[in-house]
Amino acid sequence: MTLTASSGTASSGEAAGTRPPGHEAGHARRSVRMPGMLRAGAARSSVELKAFFRNKQSLVFTLMFPVLLLLVFGSIFSGKVAGTDTDLKQVFMAGIIAAGVMSTAFSGLAINVAIERDTGTVRRLAMTPMPKSAYFIGKLSRVVVTTVLETALLLGIAWGLFGLPMPSSPERWATLGWDLALGTVACALIGCAYAAAIPNSRSASAIVTPVFMVLQFISGVFFPFNQLPHWIQTVAAFFPVKWMAQGFRSVFLPDSFTAVEPAHSWELSRIALVLGLWALAGLVLTAMTFRWRGPRVR
């Protein structure tokens, strides 16, 4: 009778829904799902954009530096490019847009990654359940938004103050779109990879800014590219800024300007190829050199 009663009691308990201690907690743990890459990337993108626009120093340096160059050099330049009927200001305006892309996508991102690595932010994020790819999605989203904003700002000033003509056909608008997109992705990935060469946040600007400035001078931003020494043109052809600037010239300048281009054509297919290869190289170099472990947080 005792055994039968005990068995009945146990059966009644199971029927009533009684579970061993910890069963419900274990079930809850198993039912929790980690956020997917896209969801985590969207959340990280929101954090990146808020952090950027709340940091006034970064906002001013990244967005306003190309604008200041545009205002200063646009006010200085005058006359026609030798051998053409094109205003020298128009050539400079097209080149400064490429400099703006490099400012937001390369310089700003490389410095930002170096600071986050030095302060331990990168290390802490690597220790969370967040997919590591979400970190790069956030960075790329930030770069895309700021680059589009920078380009719109430069175009507005160039058109309003210096008379830069807007693209005259849908094909030229399309060229502006893919040149801007490929250039932004290439510079962003190169910036992530270049951050590995920065030992700490204090030296970030000193290591990034000279590269940024030199590439502008040799890539036809401040001077017509055909007026640079031949050996400088050869060196510049290995880097993406020269090709971005050439693509933007094809958008804003008349086709007659190709008479003074090195290949006597816009070389749009080659521009796309070179920028695509730089984007691929930047992706590979970032995968090989990116360090998730900075200095230990104390």
Automatic annotation (TrEMBL):
Its main location: membrane. GO terms for molecular function: ABC-type transporter activity. Residues 1-31 are annotated as: Disordered. Residues 57-293 form the ABC transmembrane type-2 domain. The chain crosses the membrane at residues 59-79, 91-115, 136-164, 176-197, 204-225, 271-290. Pfam families: ABC2_membrane (PF01061). Coiled coil: none annotated. Keywords: Cell membrane, Membrane, Transmembrane, Transmembrane helix, Transport. It is a multi-pass membrane protein. It is found in: Cell membrane; Membrane. Residues 1-18 have a biased composition (Low complexity). GO terms for cellular component: plasma membrane. It comes from the Bacteria. Belongs to the ABC-2 integral membrane protein family. This is Transport permease protein. It comes from Streptomyces filipinensis. The lineage of its organism: Bacteria, Bacillati, Actinomycetota, Actinomycetes, Kitasatosporales.
